[in-house]
Amino acid sequence: MQHKSQLTEKIRQPMALLLRYVKFRPDGGSNKAKIALMSDHDNDILRRAHAIRHEGIALENDGLLNEARTRYEEALSLYRVHSTADDLHYANAVRYVAAIYGRLGLTREAKELWHEALSRYEECGIKEGVEEASRHLRDG
User: Following CA atoms 76, 67, 122, 114 in sequence, which dihedral angle do they give, to the nearest 10 degrees?
Assistant: First the structure.
């Protein structure tokens, strides 16, 4: 059974999104208002994806590689669905899954993701990311 404050918070979050929508367009809305609402929602999800990735980092640092893998994959799946930008956070989400796959011996899967990470880091202009991904692809 969930505590009453937890249930209240689960209700409050969607209501806050709805109130933003109503304030934006009191007449019930245009597509522009709906897009703004979805954008707020996606940004909330991407913040959560970032936090999930950092949970994975903590688990990996504790040696819990399979648990870290699960968190990294979850974060990456959120970026794949909700991100509209090729940014550093998305590139890092790909990188962490590639790295954990390598540590777990999933070489083929890791290589595919290192290719994607390389491309994303190039798009972002992140030299260190390009170098790391290139090194993994070269050295296996």
Answer: -110
